[in-house]
Structure formats: structure tokens, C-alpha cells
Amino acid sequence: MAALASEPFLQYVTLLRDRVPSFDTYPFSIPAIRHLERLELHPKVTYFVGDNGTGKSTLLEAIAVVEGFNPEGGSRNFSFSTRNTHSNLGECLRLGSGVRRLKDADGFFLRAESFYNAATYIDRVGDPYYLAKHFGGVAPHERSHGESFFSLMLDRFKGNGLYLFDEPESALSPIRQMSLLTIMHDLIGRGSQFLIATHSPIVMAYPDATIYRFSADGIRSIAYTETETHSVTKAFLDRREQVVRELLRPAGDEPRV
Questions:
Q1: Would you say domain 2-226 falls under CATH 3.40.50.300?
Q2: Where are the domains of the chain?
Q3: pTM attached to this predicted model
Q4: Strand arrangement of the beta sheet that strand 38-40 belongs to
């Protein structure tokens, strides 16, 4: 098991700068993308973190597209499209493949923002056998958004796969986010690799992972305790009453220490 987990499907991602049409147009104008050269990917878990609009979901989506996943989420067999909004970043990326190939492996691109569309596709094409095998016999739309999201991870993912998650915490309670770490650990033990864009201090807590911070200065590897998500959450919980009082004070009032 451990040997499988140490052999990644993807080793790195490189921006082929000579293919970029212009660094003045989206998505290449995003600072993190503009400065991108080569990112080494952890064989177990790689996190993309940073503020909204810093390019982490854009890069994750482009990696998914290059690997043949549906841009709106799903497996490589999902063919639905509600609106073509993905960027052309994937045309300028090179992904360094590991020893193992994805051809015969499992894989899924899980996007919180478009999971409804993926669930609709599953409802439409999923026969009773498919639903029983992958979703506990219950169609996704017959459950709450969070429950169907969690069921997908619990019942559909089989291990020996590449799983890309875009802000999975959006549909999960804190308890479910902790359960997600358990599911991830089991799948990693069965030879899986994860790439995850997240704002959650719980989701990004998997040990021995690589965390990349996306910002106006580019992309750099940081420790868990250096992430803004960790520091802001900790500061809020440690001084909740003081922070909330300051946030809600009337405009013009002097700050209270």
C-alpha cells in the first residue's frame, strides 16, 4: 500500500511560457499564473490555498481538463456541459506523469460550485446498477447537497486514483470535513493522489502534504501554520468576542482595545 502511495500519477505541472498568447489577458494576467514556472506535486496531497481570485481554482481546473476530466466536474466519462466557461490555460500546461498511468485508474474532478450539474447528469444516465454500485442506491438529487456530496466521496471513489477537489468544504459541515480527512487517508493508503483547492483549515490539515499559497507575489510553498486560513481562524476563535465587537462597531467610533 505505502509503495503505491509514494508513486504519483502526476509529478509536476509546468507553464509553457512560449505558448502563452499574452500575459495581459485572463487567465495569464493573474499574478500567480503569470509567475508560474514549475510546481512539484506531492505524491499524496497537494493543496492550493489563497484568497478569492488568486488563480488556485483556475489552475486546478486546467490540470483537470488536461487530464481529460469534464471541466464542470465528474469523471473522464462525464460528457455534459451547461456552459463553456473554462479558460485556455490547459493549452499552455505540461503535466509530468509519474510511473503509474491514469488510463486504467480511478479519477474524479469534484467541484462544489457545479456539483448540481454533475448530480443532474448522474441522475439522467445512472441506471439502478450504477447507482447501487457508486451511490448507495440513492440518486444524488434525492439527498441534500451535502449528503450527496459526501456519498460521492464515500461510495464512488475506489482508490488507485487521481482526485481533484475544488473547495469541497462548501458542501460539508465541519464534522464532515473531518470525516473527509479519514476518507482521504484510506484512499491514499490504496494508492491515490489528491490535488485540492481549499479555504478550510480542516480540509488542509492532512499531514505530510505540500501547501502552495497563491498570491499577488506568485506561488510558494508554505507550512500549515503559515497559511492565512489558519492564522485568521485561530485569531478569531481565540478572541471571538473582541473581534466581533470590533467588526460590528458603528462607523466613526474609536476602536476599542
A1: yes
A2: 2-226
A3: 0.84
A4: 38-40, 10-15, 93-97
Q: Evaluate whether 108 touches 46 at the Cβ level (below 8 Å).
A: no
On the question of pLDDT at 74 being above 80, the answer is no
Return d(Cα 242, Cα 213) in angstroms, integer: 28
**Any alpha helices (H) in the chain, and if so which ranges?**
2-5, 31-34, 56-66, 115-125, 128-134, 145-151, 174-189, 228-238, 240-248
The gap between the terminal CA atoms of the chain, to the nearest Å, is: 53
Instruction: With beta carbons less than 8 A apart as the criterion, state whether 205 and 178 touch.
Output: no
Each residue of 75-99: pLDDT tens digit? 776 554 545 556 799 999 999 987 7
**Which one has a higher pLDDT value, 185 or 110?**
185
CB 81, CB 72: distance < 8 Å: yes
Of 20, 24, 37, 39, the residue nearest 88 (C-alpha): 20
| Per-residue model confidence (pLDDT) at position 1 | 41
Tell me the average pLDDT across 98-111.
81
